[in-house]
Amino acid sequence: MANQSTIISVYPNPFLNSATIRIYPAESGEATLEVCTIQGRQVKQLFNEILEVGLSKTFILNNDRLASGVYIIRLVTKTKSIIQKIILIR
């Protein structure tokens, strides 16, 4: 699996009420999935557990308590940080 990368899929994007976030991990280990403002301030933590290679994980991001705008979905593992931009419209 050394040639593969972890993939984060977000849909729909932009979103109104909720978005589905799916992670396809290329390595196993501890991971944190966060929603951050474009300035980098964490506004939600969706996951803080172990990811296993070959097992995708799915999360629902609801728009509760979030203002319209651009956010960053950030997956942090022991070896890397992967980001994906998402847009909330109201």
Walkthrough of the structure:
The chain is mainly β and 90 residues long. The protein has one domain (7-88): Macroglobulin (MG2) domain (Immunoglobulin-like, Sandwich). The chain is 0% helix and 60% strand. The chain has no helices and seven strands. The chain has strands at 7-11, 18-24, 29-37, 42-51, 57-62, 69-77, 81-88. The strands form two sheets. The chain has a four-stranded antiparallel beta sheet, with no helix packed on it. It has a three-stranded antiparallel beta sheet with strand order 1-2-5, with no helix packed on it. A hairpin with a 6-residue loop joins β1 and β2 (18-24). The protein starts with 6 loop residues before the first strand and ends with a strand.
Please write out the topology.
Blueprint lengths: L6 E5 L6 E7 L4 E9 L4 E10 L5 E6 L6 E9 L3 E8 L2
Antiparallel strand pairs: 1-2, 2-5, 3-4, 3-6, 6-7
Number of domains: 1
Number of strands: 7
Report the top-level CATH class: Mainly Beta
Strand order of the biggest β-sheet:
4-3-6-7
